[in-house]
Structure formats: structure tokens, C-alpha cells
């Protein structure tokens, strides 16, 4: 009897400890939404505590599963809910640190929920709130799979989600039925827009390429070569990616342009980079192998640019990013200021903005900072800020308040600044002065595209597509809808040759200027050129300019991109060797007729 009483007391303590950890984890998780979204040090300690509690909770339920099953009545969906929260933690940690390895960790937990069928009996619980949790889990898992380019799995998950939504709405006839239908349509539209060009396997099934320069993250195989010089001093440290285009495919506050650009500015994750990341399945119980919570990031990075794990430190692989979907102007300025404040010595700030133009009616502008218009921002939070106007109806004598003007960026030119503007009013940003003598580069999209390419605007901007995947953009402007994998690889080799040659020409332009005083290229480009990401963007911009310059369909000056400071023409943008490679690529794609007659011997 004494032994039985002792066992019961021990079981009671296990249940109480589980309840304590569960409640503590919920409190900490709910507190995450109150943390500031900007800055670095303000939130790291809190995340560390949250990870720590979830580590203990996950291990505890594994170690005492039999007791919790019998005495607490632990259900599989409750285990799934804990795993889902851990997956969310990893995803949000990825968003805040920009480290893609944490995205893989989120995937491991989400995949385990599906593999172990933790939510399989959710509908039998007769709880609509539980079904909503299941649907939200599917939506989050789809986002992670999209970011990891697991498109086959994405399509499977969409089918499952559609079935679950149907079951949910049929069983409960909920008020949010329309909302979930819209979510489903949004996902389907995003997937359709994402696959601008299908790369076909031998069996004609579309595949997703990871390491072939097809728009994947940067890897050693896709990093453009560079002959380094002492002037290449800057590294990209802070990024602001803003998506405000109204009529563009989106999912989970990621427009297609944002989705493409954030991947362009990340490296492919590798286990070797972060030794703290282990095998996705470990510490499993006798009947339920599960993700290893021991892989959660203990501790908090002590300083910007490092990821810590005990005594081990590794340099951060990716620049830090902020992702803003249709921000108000005040939000935009706060995050821009935060990125500016966090810049270390030798660091550069990148602002990428995809937005609709906000146009001026001033006939004789004198102030290029504010009288040429700018980019429209969201009015959802700023609408009552000034009381002056709503978009499109500015009061006489006043400027549109819900607009980012070139002049708004002047203060940030005190530090090295790299700007990418994708808009139908992009060229107004070419007049930003260099008051402080710091490196400044502005890449601007075409302000117009031919009518037969207008459909692309909903699927994402052509300019951003060039910066993300030059080969895909080349196929798109030539109406090539699918390419066999072996042919894709051959064509991609031309893009690689172009990038290598353009990189050589940029370096030669600088050396010619120093030695002979010819072929001038602004020093800003040279200082940014040592950074892998910025070099990639500059060279892909060159490819975009050369390709559109040669394409018969893009004849107007507003249909080609611009940059400030201007890149040299004869020595780079109009160099015969670059034109020759683009025309060779066109021939390989069997679309030579889309391009003007090239140099002799093409």
C-alpha cells in the first residue's frame, strides 16, 4: 500500500510539473507578440527563455508519456500543438535572424506533426477551435515549404488543406468559412504565380531546382566570381524588404516580389555552417520518434553578427532582414531607422521596395526630393495621422502624406546605402544626392512594360524576377513556358558565362580608370562589389539591362531599367561580349527572333 501511494504521489508530481511547464510555455509564447519587431537585443533574451521552457516541456512529455497518457489524459493533438508551437518558434526566429537553418528546424517539427498524424482525430473531438488550429498548422507548414522550395510537398499539403477545410465547414458551418476559402484561393494563386517557367524532368514532370542559379538562394556554386581589390570594403548587414504593390499575388503577408527577393538575399543552409543543428529525428520514445527539442538554440546571441551555442560561435551567414507587407509610412521609417542604427562599421544597408507609384501633378518641379512623387504606402494605420488627405486627393499646396518620397531617404545616405526600387514611378529616385559622400547605388525598374507582358504584374514584377532568376526572366520575355532539365542546365551556363564576363568588365573598368583615366565606374559600385549579395544584384541588373536593350519588344527608354550612378555604356552595358552571350542564349532557347540583329558572328 505504501509503495502504491508513493507511486501515485510520484505520478501526481509528474502531472503537476507538466501542467506547470505547459502553462509557462503558453504564457511565454503569447508574450512573443508584444516584443518589438525591430532592433536585435530587445527580444533575444525573451526568445531564449521561451526556447528553454519548450525544450523542457518537449523532453518532459517524451520521458513521462505513459504516466501523462493514463493520469493526465494526454491526447495526440495536444502533443501536436506543442510541436506546432515549437515549429512557430523556429519560423519566427528565422524571420528575426534571417538564418535559413532555423527554417529547416521549423520544417522538421511541422513534418513530424504530419508524419505522426498528431491532428488525425481532431475532427472527432467535436471542437471547432481545434479544427481551426489544424487548419492554421497547414497554412504555416505551406509557408515554410514554399520558402524551402519543396513544391511537390506544397501541392500535397494544399490538397489536404482543401479537404480539411471542406470537412470543417461541412461539420460546423462556421462563420469563418469564407475566410478559409479565401486563404485556399490565395495559396493556389501564389503557387501558380510562383511557377513562371516549368523546368521539366525527363518524364515531363515539373521539378524545382535548388543549386543551378534558377532563383535559388546563394551557394558556392552560384556566387559570382570576383577579382577582389582593396577598395571592396563593404558588406551587406541590414536589409529592408517592402512589398506594397496592390495587385500582386501574395500569401501570409508575403507578396511574390518579397518572396523572390528574400531568397535572393539568403545563402543555402548547410549543416556545416551551424553545428548545433542535428538530425531531425532523435530522442524518440519507444512508440513515437519525434523531433529533437535538444536542438533548440540555447542562450542568446551576445552581439550582432553571431549565433551562439554554448562556447561555439559562428559568423552570421545572412544579412539581417526586415520584411514589411504594406507598411504605413510611420512603420517604414521606424524599421528603416532601426536598420540604420544597427549598422556596424563597414556595413551597408539595403532598401528594396516594390510598390505602386504615387504621382505628382507639379508641372515645373524644383525640389526633386518631394515634387516628383514617390511610392505609395499603406493608409491602414496612417489614415488619421495628419488629417490632410487620403491617397489621390491631396489638399492644394500639400504633399501626399501616404507616400515615400526620395527626400525621405536623404538622412539615411549618411551610411552606405544600396536602394532597389521596383515601381511604375521608380525613376524619380535617380536624383538622390550624395550629401555625405558615402557610397550610394540606386537600381530602378523599368517604369513601363509592353502590353503583352502586363499579366506578369499580378504574378510578380519582371525586374525583380531578373534580379531573382535571370534565366527564368529570359524565358518569360520570350514566351518560353517550359524547358527540359538538360536544356535548362545548358542555357543556365550562358547566364553563368555572362555573369563571369560582366564581373571581369566591372573590375577592368575600375583598373582602367586608375591606370589610364578611362572607362569610369563610380567608386560606390566598387565598394559594394566585394559583397557576394550586392555583387550578384549588380551583375543581374546588368543582365537585365542588356537583355531588354536587345529585345525587340522593349523599345521605349521607360521600358528598360536605370541605375544611379550610371554604369558605363561602351565599357559595360553595351559591351559586344555581353551582347554576344545574350544572343547565344537566345539561340539556344530557339527564340533568336525576339532579339535585334547582333554583332557579326553571333
Structure description:
GO terms for molecular function: transcription corepressor activity. This is Protein SCAI. Pfam families: SCAI (PF12070). InterPro entries: SCAI, SCAI_metazoan/Viridiplantae. It is a single chain. The strands form five sheets. Strands 8-3-9-13-14-16 form a six-stranded mixed β-sheet, sandwiched between helices. The protein has a three-stranded mixed β-sheet with strand order 2-1-15. The protein has a three-stranded antiparallel β-sheet with strand order 10-11-12, with no helix packed on it. It has 602 residues and is of the alpha/beta class. The chain contains 18 helices and 16 strands. Helix 4 (76-97) packs parallel to helix 6 (128-147) and helix 12 (462-468) packs across helix 16 (532-550). Strand 6 and strand 7 (312-315) form a beta hairpin. Mean pLDDT is 84; it is low at 272-315 and 381-394. It has two domains: 7-197, Serine Threonine Protein Phosphatase 5, Tetratricopeptide repeat, CATH 1.25.40; 212-270 and 318-379 and 399-593, no CATH class.
Features:
single chain; 602 residues; alpha/beta; Serine Threonine Protein Phosphatase 5, Tetratricopeptide repeat; 2 domains; three-stranded mixed sheet; 18 helices; 16 strands; transcription corepressor activity; Protein SCAI; SCAI; SCAI_metazoan/Viridiplantae
| Structural class based on helices, strands and sheet pairing | alpha/beta
Give the proportion of residues in helices. Answer: 40-55%
Q: What overall form do the CA principal axes indicate? A: globular
**Beta-strand proportion:** 5-15%
Note poorly predicted spans: 272-315, 381-394
What is the end-to-end distance?
A: 95 Å
The number of helical runs is 18
Query: Strand count, sense and closure of the main sheet?
Result: 6 strands, mixed
GO molecular function: transcription corepressor activity
Pfam family, one: SCAI
Protein name: Protein SCAI
Amino acid at each position: 500500500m505504501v509503495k502504491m501511494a508513493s507511486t501515485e504521489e510520484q505520478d501526481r508530481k509528474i502531472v503537476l510539473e507538466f501542467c506547470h511547464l505547459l502553462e509557462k510555455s503558453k504564457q511565454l509564447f503569447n508574450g512573443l507578440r508584444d516584443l518589438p519587431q525591430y532592433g536585435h537585443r530587445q527580444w533575444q533574451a525573451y526568445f531564449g527563455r521561451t526556447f528553454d521552457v519548450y525544450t523542457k516541456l518537449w523532453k518532459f512529455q517524451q520521458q513521462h508519456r505513459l504516466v501523462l497518457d493514463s493520469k493526465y489524459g494526454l491526447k495526440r493533438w495536444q502533443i501536436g500543438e506543442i510541436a506546432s508551437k515549437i515549429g512557430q518558434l523556429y519560423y519566427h526566429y528565422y524571420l528575426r535572424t534571417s538564418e535559413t537553418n532555423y527554417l529547416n528546424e521549423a520544417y522538421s517539427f511541422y513534418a513530424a506533426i504530419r508524419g505522426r498524424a498528431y491532428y488525425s482525430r481532431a475532427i472527432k473531438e467535436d471542437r471547432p477551435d481545434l479544427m481551426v488550429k489544424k487548419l492554421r498548422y497547414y497554412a504555416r507548414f505551406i509557408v515554410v515549404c514554399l520558402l524551402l522550395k519543396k513544391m511537390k510537398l506544397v501541392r500535397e499539403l494544399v490538397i489536404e488543406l482543401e479537404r480539411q477545410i471542406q470537412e470543417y465547414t461541412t461539420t460546423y458551418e462556421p462563420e469563418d468559412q469564407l475566410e478559409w476559402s479565401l486563404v485556399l484561393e490565395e495559396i493556389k494563386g501564389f503557387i501558380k504565380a510562383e511557377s513562371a517557367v516549368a523546368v521539366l524532368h525527363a518524364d515531363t514532370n515539373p521539378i524545382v531546382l535548388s543549386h543551378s542559379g534558377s532563383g535559388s538562394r546563394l551557394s558556392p556554386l552560384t556566387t559570382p566570381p570576383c577579382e577582389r581589390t582593396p577598395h571592396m570594403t563593404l558588406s551587406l548587414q541590414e536589409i529592408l524588404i517592402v512589398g506594397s504593390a496592390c495587385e500582386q499575388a501574395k500569401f501570409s503577408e508575403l507578396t511574390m516580389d518579397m518572396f523572390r527577393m528574400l531568397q535572393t538575399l539568403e545563402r543555402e543552409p548547410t549543416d556545416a555552417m551551424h553545428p548545433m543543428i542535428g538530425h531531425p529525428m532523435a530522442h524518440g520514445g519507444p512508440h513515437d520518434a519525434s523531433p529533437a527539442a535538444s536542438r533548440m538554440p540555447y542562450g542568446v546571441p551576445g552581439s550582432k553578427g553571431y549565433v551562439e551555442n554554448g562556447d561555439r560561435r559562428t559568423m552570421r551567414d545572412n544579412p539581417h532582414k526586415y520584411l514589411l507587407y504594406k507598411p504605413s509610412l510611420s512603420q517604414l521609417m521606424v524599421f528603416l531607422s532601426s536598420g540604420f542604427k544597427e549598422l556596424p562599421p563597414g556595413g551597408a544597408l539595403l532598401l528594396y521596395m516594390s510598390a505602386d507609384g504615387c504621382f505628382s501633378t507639379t508641372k515645373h518641379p524644383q525640389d526633386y526630393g518631394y515634387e516628383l512623387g514617390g511610392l505609395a504606402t499603406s493608409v491602414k494605420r496612417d489614415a488619421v495621422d495628419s488629417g490632410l488627405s487620403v491617397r489621390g486627393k491631396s489638399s492644394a499646396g500639400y504633399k501626399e502624406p501616404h507616400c515615400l518620397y526620395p527626400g525621405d531617404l536623404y538622412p539615411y545616405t549618411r551610411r552606405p546605402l544600396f536602394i532597389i526600387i521596383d515601381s511604375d514611378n521608380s525613376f524619380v529616385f535617380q536624383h538622390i544626392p550624395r550629401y555625405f559622400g558615402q557610397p550610394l547605388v540606386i537600381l530602378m525598374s523599368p517604369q513601363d512594360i509592353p502590353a503583352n507582358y502586363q499579366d506578369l504584374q499580378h504574378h510578380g514584377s519582371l525586374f525583380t524576377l531578373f534580379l531573382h532568376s535571370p534565366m527564368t526572366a529570359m524565358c518569360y520575355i520570350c514566351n518560353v513556358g517550359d524547358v527540359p532539365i538538360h536544356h535548362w542546365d545548358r542555357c543556365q551556363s550562358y547566364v553563368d558565362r555572362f555573369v563571369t564576363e560582366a564581373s571581369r568588365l566591372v573590375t577592368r573598368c575600375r583598373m582602367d580608370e586608375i591606370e589610364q583615366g578611362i572607362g569610369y565606374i563610380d567608386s560606390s559600385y566598387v565598394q559594394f562589389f566585394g559583397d557576394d549579395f550586392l555583387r550578384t544584384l549588380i551583375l543581374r541588373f546588368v543582365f537585365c539591362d542588356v537583355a531588354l536593350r536587345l529585345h525587340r519588344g522593349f523599345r521605349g527608354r521607360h521600358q528598360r531599367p536605370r541605375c544611379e550612378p550610371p554604369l558605363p555604356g561602351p565599357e559595360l552595358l553595351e559591351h559586344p561580349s555581353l551582347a554576344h552571350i545574350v544572343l547565344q542564349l537566345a539561340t539556344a532557347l530557339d527564340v533568336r527572333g525576339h532579339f535585334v540583329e547582333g554583332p557579326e558572328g553571333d
